[in-house]
Amino acid sequence: MARPSAPGSLVLVQDLVNTLDLETGADTLATAEGRAAFGVSEAGLPAARELREALRAACLAHAGHAPPADVAALCTLLAQAPLLTTVDPADGSARLTPADPASLTARIAVAVALGSLDGSWQRLKVCEDETCRWAYYDRSPAGRGRWCSMEVCGARAKMRAYRARRAGE
Predict the structure, then answer these.
(1) Would you list the DSSP string of 23-89?
(2) How far is CA 31 from CA 15, 19, 139, in A?
(3) Are 139 and 148 contacting, i.e. CB atoms less than 8 angstroms apart?
C-alpha cells in the first residue's frame, strides 16, 4: 500500500521511524543496505534505533496519545547534534545545516527544526493502532487523522469497535 510521504526534510524522519515494521518485526536497519540508506554504520546501529524510537514517541504524542516512552529522550538526543546557520553571501539568505552532515541525528535535528517552523512537524504522527505505529503525515484538513491508512488500520479499528458494541447488546 502506497502511503504519501511527509513534506520536505521530514520524509527522512518518516522513513527512519518506518524502518521497523511492528506487525512483522522486520527491521530495515538490521541490514547493511538499510543502514547505508541512512548513512549508519553497524557500530552506529544502537544509536539509530534509539533515535528512531524517540521519534516514534514524539509522533505518537503528536497524535494526541500518551507516548509509551519519554519524549524528553528526543530532546536529549537532538541536543547532541550541533547545527549551523549559514548565510549565502550572494543574497543574504540563511539556512540551517548540520555541523556534521554525515550525522543522522544532526540531519534529523534540521528536519525537526524546519518542520517546527512551518508547522509540519506536528502533523507527522504514528498510527493509533498499537500493532502498527507506522509514521504518516496527517494531510486531513483539521489535522485529526488517527491511522496511517483508513482502508487498513482505520477499518480494523472501526470493526473492533462495532464488534464490541454488538457484544455488549
Answers:
(1) TT--BGGGSHHHHHTTT--STTHHHHHHHHHHHHHHHHHHTTS--SS-THHHHHHHHTS-EEEEE-T
(2) 15, 11, 31
(3) no
Burial classification of residue 22, based on how many CB atoms lie within 10 Å of its CB (0-12 exposed, 13-18 middle, 19 or more buried): middle
- Full DSSP string of 95-121: EEEESSTT-HHHHHHHHHHHHHHHT-G
| 3-state SS, residue 133 | coil
Which pLDDT score, from 0 to 100, does residue 154 have? 56
- Residue 153's SS3 state is helix
d(CA 53, CA 16): 9
**Joined grid coordinates for residue 101:** 552532515
One DSSP character per residue, 1-21 reads ---PPPSTTHHHHHHHHTTB-
| Residues 1, 127 contacting (CB under 8 angstroms) | no
C-beta of residue 120 within 8 angstroms of C-beta of residue 8: yes
Give the predicted TM-score (pTM) of the model.
0.85
Tell me which residue has cell 504519501: 4
For the chain, which residues score pLDDT lower than 50?
Answer: 1
Query: What pLDDT shows up at residue 161?
Result: 62
